[in-house]
Write a structure and sequence with these properties.
The structure is a homodimer.
Chain A: H1 7-14, H2 18-26, H3 33-46, H4 52-59, E1 64-68, H5 80-94, E2 98-102, H6 107-121, E3 125-129, H7 136-143, E4 148-151, E5 163-166, H8 168-181, E6 187-191, H9 197-212, E7 221-223, H10 228-239, E8 247-250, H11 253-265, E9 271-275, H12 279-284, E10 287-290, H13 293-308, E11 316-319, E12 322-324
Helix pairs in contact in A: 1-2, 1-3, 5-13, 6-7, 8-9, 10-11
The structure holds a DNA duplex.
Chain lengths: 329, 329
DNA sequence: CATCGAGATTGGATCGTTCAAGGCGGCGAG
DNA sequence: CTCGCCGCCTTGAACGATCCAATCTCGATG
């Protein structure tokens, strides 16, 4: 098996200088057609691959993008990350970038990791999944002018940095409209305590849709921590109302699954729609709002590569989820 | 913000040569105690971080490990990868390595990716999740002496390369013993068609355990493709037997979920145990055999770093799964 | 025919690190 | 006293790419 093929090997083989080979790779338009052709053939014949380390040392860019992989919190909602990562990797590959993983227990440690990765590997960019109010991580990155995109809107200052997100309100609105069309009038919402951007957004979609058709919603609005048991508990309180709901829109599949199980236990016919279209929803036949994760990932990468290659494009993007109907609604 | 800190900056600050700084980092024992101390202080004071690209160019090693992220096949079983990846990333970080992702549609493309990654990034090692009979990927890697570990045994030639795996037979055996202890005698197995190493292994655990207590198992052995519908279908055929089983051990949570649903529909009391302890199992309360994924990942990394740093250790490792009891068994 | 200039090509320097070889002072042995 | 060795440190070169400035080529032009 041959000794390693460098740019010099290619140059010799194609009877040109190193610089010409480099130009063919990085600025093809300034090389004469036939020369370019000859160099390309030599590259193919020798199986030459540019050494990233050498390129990186000179240019300071690594063509590496970092993403955090989280400790699979819940399990039921956690597996969403999986699909996102896959999309990210695929799109990045297509653009000549690679995806590097990192973990962190908290924000401070995550910032320390940024520092380490930037220092040692010259990372080109970061993708953050989810942001919260007053996120220290985005501030740190922005201050140092490190390119990054978040999957999830910044809830305080909408234009602070590039982001891609899925329109949660549109998702719950769609679910609510579907239930209305099916004849339901008393439609409840099962969500998280006010204060989380994502949760409030999902609640808003339901509330405004109800208001649009002149239905009052205040009494049928529930807020609780995420979880199956919590979903079941809240559904029972809803059923205890004078005018119990005939359908429930939920902020997560965990809550939806709990609600569905509770409804079935009490032999009550209640339509349920979850959120995220997790494997669990698919497995038990739960209708759910599905996020276009692959597309979201692709857009994140496109935004980043656009940023890195200098071409500015619209740095904010809101995607629409779709409703997956199964047998619970 | 300061200009970049290189090894030369540290050397000047500590009043030594570049090489001495390098030695403190890579071979501390050959540097005198007080000098070492002085250099370490300078490193800390300046916030120096070794530039990976430069190091890599010289040594040909990148401290990068690649893992394939799969296209989330089923969904129900797919989310296992997530936990494995997290464990991998965490352990790798601790050992000073980073994890790089890649995708591939088929074996040929995967091999092409190996080539590309090795050529451009000087990858140190690969982690493969799952192997099949006569896997071309392991052959390719072995031929080129690229370090790699598989999560999953090679079924043809057990000692061909380093691997970590979970003892599937032990898992189904444990499940079967649990059911026996609970008084069951007619215990069926719901698995995949013979020929897949993993599937045959899981079946064997059940069969030998049954044989040990003198119970015949042939009639209650079912083989089908993976899936919820398939699990439900097979359970119905089992219930149609003259002596229907009172319990079923399954090769996957998909099959188990299908079986459980079918059993409940027909109002038959059948104990069900799944395999993999997926989020779905947790959500619906399905008992399942749980693989120690975090530990498996950690061992994979340890094996690799051991290999890379020259110290040989036992290159094959079989971990024991554990039975998670919920309310289906 | 000499000159010009645009475009293509060339050689040298450079990025930050590690490797290979060599220097220097002190200690023990001949 | 001298030599050799050893421990500790320093110097020069190299890894493979890109950037920069200088040079070459060649057709067009005065």
């Amino acid at each position: 098996m041959g000794e390693k093929v460098t740019i010099a090997t290619v140059a010799r083989h194609a009877q040109v200088s190193r610089q010409t080979v480099s130009n063919v790779l990085n600025a093809p338009h300034i090389v004469r057609e036939d020369t370019r052709q000859r160099v390309r053939e030599a590259i193919a014949a020798l199986g030459y691959r540019a050494n990233q380390a050498a390129r990186q040392m000179r240019t300071g860019r690594s063509r590496l993008i970092a993403v955090r992989i989280e400790p699979t919190r819940d399990g039921i909602n956690g597996s969403v990350l999986d699909r996102f990562l896959h999309g990210l990797t695929e799109t990045a590959d297509a653009g000549g970038y690679r995806v590097l993983l990192y973990t962190a227990r908290d924000d401070d440690q995550e910032i320390a990791t940024y520092d380490a990765l930037l220092g040692a590997y010259d990372l080109d960019a970061f993708v953050l999944t989810g942001t919260k109010h007053g996120d220290p991580r985005t501030a740190w990155l922005a201050e140092r002018e490190v390119p990054f995109v978040t999957f999830g809107r910044p809830w305080d200052t909408p234009d602070a940095h590039p982001w891609v997100d899925v329109d949660g309100a549109a998702g719950t609105a769609q679910a609510t409209r579907h239930l209305l069309a099916a004849g339901h009038r008393r439609i409840a919402f099962l969500g998280w305590p006010a204060g989380s951007g994502v949760g409030d957004d999902r609640r808003a979609g339901w509330r405004t849709t109800m208001a649009e058709v002149g239905l009052d919603s205040a009494a049928a609005d529930r807020a609780t921590e995420d979880g199956i048991a919590e979903g079941a508990r809240e559904l029972r309180t809803l059923l205890a109302l004078d005018a119990p709901p005939t359908a429930v829109v939920c902020a997560s599949d965990s809550l939806a699954l709990g609600a569905w199980q509770a409804a079935r236990e009490t032999a009550t016919d209640v339509a349920v729609v979850g959120f995220d279209d997790t494997p669990v929803a698919a497995a038990v036949g739960l209708s759910s709002v599905s996020q276009p994760l692959g597309e979201a990932a692709a857009r994140c990468v496109e935004l980043l590569t656009g940023l890195l290659d200098g071409q500015q494009r619209d740095p904010q993007l809101l995607l629409s989820p779709s409703l997956v109907l199964r047998h619970t609604a």
